[in-house]
Amino acid sequence: MMQPRSDELNYEEQAVVDPDLCVSCGICVGACPTATPFRKASALSPGIDLPDLSAALLRIQLEEACAGLRGHTRTVVLGCKGSPSLQELADHETAVVNIRCMAHLPPPFIDFILSRNLADGIFLAGCKGGDCDYRLGMEWCSQRISRERDPQLRKRIDTRRVAQGWEPATAGLAQPARALSALRKQLLCLEGEPAGPRAESESARSWWKSLPVRVIAYGLFAITASAFSAWPAFSLIKPGQAIVSLSFSHAGQRVEECKRLSQEELNKLPPNMRKPSNCPRERLPVQVEFRVDGETVYQQVRPPSGVWNDGESTVYARIPVYAGTHHLFIGLNDSGTDNKFDYELAAEVELKPEQHVVVEFDSDARQFIFR
């Protein structure tokens, strides 16, 4: 649930788990985009986790269970709390691993099993009779695999290698063993096709068959491109003109000043969140003005980038100027104060015909440059 913040950090609300309401289904783990087993450089610690079956422990169980599999249809069977007994399915070609709910399994784990060649197929057993113990577990799992709900299974994974025991293709089979057998028959049909992302999208035979068509198409494209590259003649600027480009990014000042936290305030925070200052993310827009010989030819207020308005403001403009000596001026305001430029540069610049001058902002030196 969402509650008002208790740590005085940014944003008005924070996610909180109520232990009196939590049923330990793990669906929240499956919905967490940071619960990915591919993380190796740092500890696998997602934003939310089950204390007795963490994402890191699940990865270890899967790797250990699949280590001894052999055969052409190596399969991982994943059972949930409401699944029938599945241990009898375990053999040299089948690994059985238990999770809390089908939606407890983050889609990246399916990607991990197949792309790392731990197995050739995955059978998700689901609850008996298709009636989920946790109400929406199997439905949400199906939507993630079919890429209709976040986090989605990556498109590089062939969903024909993933059987869902509650789906129409297998739901009518009375026993998990029969459903598993049906999956193995399908895997045999797919034998030779790679399970993971390292495969090419076409077979070598198909590529060679289509080679003549490709050669003709590429040839026609090259002829067309050559013709249009030379005709009709086109110029970006008029004779006797030069180009001045404004091209730079700069972050405005923060909307509010950073607040220095006292030691007492820091002690109230979790150890991993103890930063000496609490700084708001949002930035001010920047105002840019460019003049040629005292005449304003560009004037814009550029908003900050990012979902939270915390990124840099980007300025890009191409301004044609007739050749000759001109007085150029660039001014930038990033503090929101009126009638004041925080950074500016004025200079006499000799422009030659077809010359290109770029106005940049040196972030280290905190100054403009005519280059």
Question: Overview of this structure, please?
Answer:
The protein has 371 residues and is an alpha/beta fold. The protein has 2 domains: 188 residues, no CATH class; 116 residues, Immunoglobulin-like (Sandwich), CATH 2.60.40. 23% of the residues lie in helices and 25% in strands. It contains 9 helices and 16 strands. The chain has a 4-stranded parallel sheet with strand order 4-3-5-6, sandwiched between helices. Strands 12-7-15-16 form a 4-stranded mixed sheet, with no helix packed on it. It is flat.
Would you kindly provide a brief summary of this structure?
With 371 residues, this protein is an alpha/beta fold.
Task: Output the keywords.
single chain; 371 residues; alpha/beta; Immunoglobulin-like; 9 helices; 23% helix; 25% strand
What is the gyration radius calculated from CA atoms? 30 Å
Summed over residues and divided by their number, the pLDDT gives a mean of 85
Q: What strand line-up does the widest sheet have?
A: 4-3-5-6
Measured between the Cα atoms of the first and last residue, the distance is 54 Å
Classify the secondary structure makeup into a structural class.
Answer: alpha/beta
Question: Spans with pLDDT under 50 lasting ≥5 residues?
Answer: 198-203
Number of domains: 2
Helix count?
9
Shape: flat
